[in-house]
């Protein structure tokens, strides 16, 4: 019996930004894309597990640029069919949770929009210090929710993140569209 459904957030519950962070930074700084791009991935990775904070991130990029996060996420939208699924799961007394690789500035914007309010629990990489696909991230969530892998479904839009979940007995869904997520989760629950 399914007791919990765990959702990745970006790309599953909401659309990801249309603009790349690197492009925005090139527009707002005196740096070239070739200077920014090699730094950006590793710095965001470190920030997503709290190895560095936002001030350190900006320092390593050569100074803070206001409004970058907001610009990056300006056109994001929540996937209504997935939100409706979450509400239905909760009415069935199935715990709903988020497990997301993210950074504090993004999480703050999403929280201010009220997008996390639909879920019983929210596990963010920068808060728990673990990122998918590290199996410890999934083990942490299972422990916190008080469920076994066999009692869960995990949904992500990145195939690499599903393998560790499967190895723990979690049923998985590779998200390709909001309607497909709703359909496959319903099939797994019924």
Which CATH top level class of the largest domain fits?
Alpha Beta
Helix percent band: 40-55%
Total number of β-strand segments?
Answer: 5
Query: In CATH terms, what is the architecture of the largest domain?
Result: 3-Layer(aba) Sandwich
Helix and strand succession? Answer: EHHHHHEHEHHEHEH
Identify the quaternary structure here. single chain
Unreliable parts: none
Widest sheet: strand order?
A: 3-2-1-4-5
Question: What is the CATH fold-level name of the largest domain?
Answer: Rossmann fold
The largest sheet, given as strand count, sense and whether it forms a barrel, is: 5 strands, parallel
Organism: Candidatus Amesbacteria bacterium RIFOXYB1_FULL_44_23
Protein name: HAD family phosphatase
Describe the fold and architecture.
With 190 residues, the protein is an alpha/beta fold. The protein folds into 2 domains: 4-16 and 77-189, Rossmann fold (3-Layer(aba) Sandwich); 21-73, no CATH class. 48% of the residues lie in helices and 12% in strands. It is built from 10 helices and 5 strands. It has helices at 21-28, 33-48, 54-60, 68-73, 80-91, 104-112, 125-128, 135-145, 162-167, 178-189, and strands at residues 4-7, 95-100, 121-124, 152-156, 171-174. A 5-stranded parallel β-sheet has the order 3-2-1-4-5, sandwiched between helices. α5 (80-91) runs parallel beside α10 (178-189). The protein is elongated and about 55 Å long. The mean pLDDT is 94. Pfam families: Hydrolase. This is HAD family phosphatase. InterPro entries: HAD-like_sf, HAD-SF_hydro_IA, HAD_sf.
């Amino acid at each position: 019996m399914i007791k919990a459904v765990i959702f990745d957030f970006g790309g599953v519950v909401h659309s990801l930004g249309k603009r790349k962070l690197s492009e925005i930074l090139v527009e707002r700084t005196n740096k070239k894309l070739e200077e920014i791009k090699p730094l950006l991935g590793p710095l965001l990775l470190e920030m997503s597990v709290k190895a560095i904070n936002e001030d350190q991130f900006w320092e390593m990029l050569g100074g803070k640029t206001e409004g970058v996060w907001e610009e990056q996420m300006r056109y994001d939208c929540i996937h209504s069919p997935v939100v409706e699924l979450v509400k239905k799961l909760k009415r069935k007394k199935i715990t709903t949770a988020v497990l997301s690789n993210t950074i504090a500035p993004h999480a703050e914007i999403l929280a201010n929009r009220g997008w996390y309010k639909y879920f019983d629990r929210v596990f963010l990489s920068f808060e728990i210090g673990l990122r998918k696909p590290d199996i410890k991230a999934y083990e942490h969530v299972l422990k916190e929710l008080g469920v076994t892998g066999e009692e869960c479904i995990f949904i992500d839009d990145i195939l690499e993140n599903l393998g560790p979940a499967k190895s723990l007995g979690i049923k998985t869904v590779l998200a390709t569209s909001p309607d497909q997520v709703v359909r496959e989760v319903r099939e797994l629950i019924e």
